[in-house]
Amino acid sequence: MSTPRQEQGFLTGSAVVIVAVAQLSDPGSVTALLLLSPAVAAFVLRTRLPSVPAEVFAALVLAPVALVVADEGDLEGAFFLGVMMVLYTSWHLGSLTRAVLVGAASAAVPWLIATAMVSEAQIGWTSWSAANGFTFALGRTLHRQQALIDQLERARVALADQAVAEERRRMARELHDLSGHTLAAMLLHVTGARHVLRRDVDEADHALRDAETVGRSSLDQVRATVAALRTFERGSDPPLAGSADLPALIGEYRRAGLVIDATITGPLTNLDGLVGTALHRIAREALANVARHAPANSVELVLDGADHGVRLLVTDRGRPGAAPDPNAGHFGLVGMRERARALGGEASAGPTPDGWRVDVRIPTTPADHDQFAVT
């Protein structure tokens, strides 16, 4: 849209051109031209001081025009100053009622002069009144267009902010899940090595090698994540771990020292896509929490499919109050709920008399159920 400086130049130039054309087509006296000066100045004032009420702007334009034309019927073309004033006012004025009143006043001036003041001059008031009506409609159309443009711009900014916030949340979840899982697994291995260091050097060495393997794997994942974020291509993401990778995840934590009793119902291990990835990430976070807060507890993991969804249940038992308060700002629990909610499901987590429990339910599509039959 035009800038205030551009509008000022356009309006001022138009007003000067209108007066010049009116003088050439229907000449008036020098006094009449001077009397039109306030009308031209009103356009400059309106663009420099947008706070000037529209009614004041209209009066500053219409009064000199009516005074000059009503004197001897000369400079009839000066009516176009009123037409331009109506266009600008109806375009920029938010109140429709005020815009209608200004437009009606401008349309009435030619009729009043032609019928009540200088009827002998045979001024064509119908054309000028119609011109006011046309420019009023055009101005309101421009006003609505500007309002739509402003709404679209606000929506664009809001969507951009939302996209940035969602991407930051996604990156926070990924980094939290990656670091939490890796550190928890490494901590279990190092703790095991420390416990057997004095009585079984070989077992301690084995535990440290496992910790090193986990650390190197984590470093590779971090590098892959950074590389994916730095790429300029918009191709598909590399395959992500799904429910089929849960046995490997459980085995990793078993080797690190957790006692895990896992029950995975049949072909659910072949469930991939968004649901499978969410199940894998949530299970990994739940096991990492046990490893961090209650490594001595035993864990029961159940993954089961229902008619219209899948359920993941991770429960640890042994030491009561082992896990953190879910309302204390722990991002892992927040990430679980966000992952489930993003797929139309729900996740809950809370203490039990002897440990902690994570319960996740995610609906599945017919296409997902087709994968349950894969062996």
Question: Would you give an account of this structure?
Answer:
Strand 4 (346-352) and strand 5 (355-363) form a beta hairpin. Helix 5 (79-92) runs parallel beside helix 7 and helix 10 packs antiparallel against helix 11 (331-342). The protein has helices at residues 4-25, 30-35, 37-48, 54-72, 79-92, 96-117, 125-196, 201-230, 246-256, 273-293, 331-342, 366-372, and strands at 259-264, 298-305, 309-317, 346-352, 355-363. A five-stranded mixed sheet has the order 1-2-3-5-4. The chain contains twelve helices and five strands. With 375 residues, the chain is of the alpha+beta class. It has two domains: 4-157, no CATH class; 241-375, Histidine kinase-like ATPase, C-terminal domain (Heat Shock Protein 90, 2-Layer Sandwich). The model is unreliable at 232-237 and 366-375 (pLDDT under 50).
Write the layout of secondary structure elements.
Blueprint (H helix, E strand, L loop, with lengths): L3 H22 L4 H6 L1 H12 L5 H19 L6 H14 L3 H22 L7 H72 L4 H30 L15 H11 L2 E6 L8 H21 L4 E8 L3 E9 L13 H12 L3 E7 L2 E9 L2 H7 L3
Parallel strand pairs: 1-2
Antiparallel strand pairs: 2-3, 3-5, 4-5
Helix pairs in contact: 1-3, 3-4, 4-5, 4-6, 5-6, 5-7, 6-7, 7-8, 7-9, 7-10, 9-10, 10-11
